[in-house]
Amino acid sequence: MGKVLSFIIVTHGDIGGSLLAVAEYILGRKLDNFVAVNVPFMGELQHVIDSNCRFPFAERRQLIKEQIRKAKNQVDKGSGIIILTDLFGGTGFSVASEFFTSDDGVIISGVNLPMLLKAAEIRQGSPVEVAVDLVDRTRKAVVCRFPPSFTG
């Protein structure tokens, strides 16, 4: 087996950690090249950010950036990284976009459980190819089922 891609899940609260735990449970194995980074809420940072800080949101962004860098160092095997975020334009997405370059890999928003399960299955390939495949495959996993009374 060749080198595998690495994945960093960046989400508000512990959504990413929970998604990762469920994916590992379903697959019956640890996903070693996956790591979750929680984007903390301001109230959770009172012990870290000085109450007299003039720019608490900037300091929060810097803390998140450092968490993403640590996660990158933890899982990066040299084959590329895909960052999976919960919300396009959200804090995790925008912070990652500030320093994560196309040489590093790809950022995808809209992470969900089907996406993680597919990512675990197709971990080899270029980050761009895998990202396109992930988005295409998981787009098909979003389904609206109407109750029988609505189908005519």
Question: What would the keywords be for this entry?
Answer:
152 residues, alpha/beta, Rossmann fold, four-stranded parallel sheet, 42% helix, 15% strand, globular
Describe the structure.
With 152 residues, the chain is an alpha/beta fold. It has a single domain (6-150), classed as 3-Layer(aba) Sandwich (Rossmann fold). The protein has five helices and four strands, in the order βαβαβαβαα. The protein has helices spanning 15-27, 56-75, 91-99, 113-121, 127-139, and strands spanning 6-12, 34-39, 81-85, 105-109. It has a four-stranded parallel beta sheet, with helices on both faces. Helix 3 (91-99) links the parallel strand 3 and strand 4 (105-109). Helix 2 packs across helix 3 (91-99) and helix 4 crosses helix 5. The radius of gyration is 17 Å and the shape is globular. The mean pLDDT is 87.
Topology:
Elements: E1 6-12, H1 15-27, E2 34-39, H2 56-75, E3 81-85, H3 91-99, E4 105-109, H4 113-121, H5 127-139
Parallel strand pairs: 1-2, 1-3, 3-4
Helix pairs in contact: 2-3, 4-5
Order of helices and strands: EHEHEHEHH
CATH superfamily: Phosphotransferase system, mannose-type IIA component
Strand content: 15-25%
Shape assignment: globular
The total domain count is 1
- How many strands, which pairing sense, and closed or not: the largest β-sheet? 4 strands, parallel
Q: Report the structural category.
A: alpha/beta
Helix content, binned percent: 40-55%
Radius of gyration: 17 Å
The CATH topology label is: Rossmann fold
Determine the oligomeric state from the structure. Answer: single chain
Mean pLDDT: 87
Low-confidence stretches: none
Can you count the helices? 5
